[in-house]
Design brief:
Helices cover 9% and strands 47% of the residues. The protein is built from 2 helices and 9 strands; from the N terminus they run E-E-E-E-E-H-E-E-E-E-H. An 8-stranded antiparallel barrel has the order 1-5-4-3-2-6-7-8.
């Protein structure tokens, strides 16, 4: 079993992104149940099929299985995905021994910016940049599968 250990943070201001590599991502969900999410993702020239299981109580770790698939197959699968496709640009920001993945969302989630960092274990320390703010790890509203069904623009500022 593969386990993803990841922490998520909101972003209070953008660092200078011109110096970092980025990829545009379009993704949809064949199943958005948080206990067994099935995602299809087009990222640049590549495509992936990912299955995620339910996380632990903190939301930091959860089962993840991912395989690269043909991009034409991914495009076909996106046609039958649940309503609510997610579009975003992901920036890859080096941070010590880690890489922070900073997602700038588009469309109905425009204005939302989330930084994610994958860790080797739940207690691993990392350097938190000044531009990262509140941690939203485990807050299911910020799962991409939830944002596809209930976009950020519909509830931001109401919490």
């Amino acid at each position: 079993m593969m386990t993803e250990i990841e922490r998520k943070f909101l972003v209070k201001y953008l660092p200078d992104l011109n110096q970092y590599k980025s990829k545009r991502i379009v993704q949809g969900f064949l199943n958005s149940d948080p206990e067994r999410t099935v995602r299809v993702r087009l990222m640049g020239e590549k495509a992936f099929l990912t299955i995620k299981g339910i996380g632990n109580s903190s939301g930091v770790s959860r089962f993840e299985w991912e395989r690269e698939i043909d991009s034409n197959d991914a495009a076909d699968l996106l046609k039958i995905a649940e309503p609510g496709v997610i579009a975003k640009t992901r920036f890859f920001i080096p941070n010590g021994n880690h890489t922070i993945e900073l997602d700038v969302f588009e469309d109905d989630n425009a204005g939302l910016i989330i930084a994610e960092i994958e860790l080797q274990n739940e207690n691993e320390q990392f350097i938190k940049p000044d531009w990262m703010s509140s941690e939203v790890t485990g807050d299911k509203r910020y799962y991409n599968s939830a944002l596809a069904k209930n976009p950020w623009k519909g509830w931001h500022g109401l919490e």
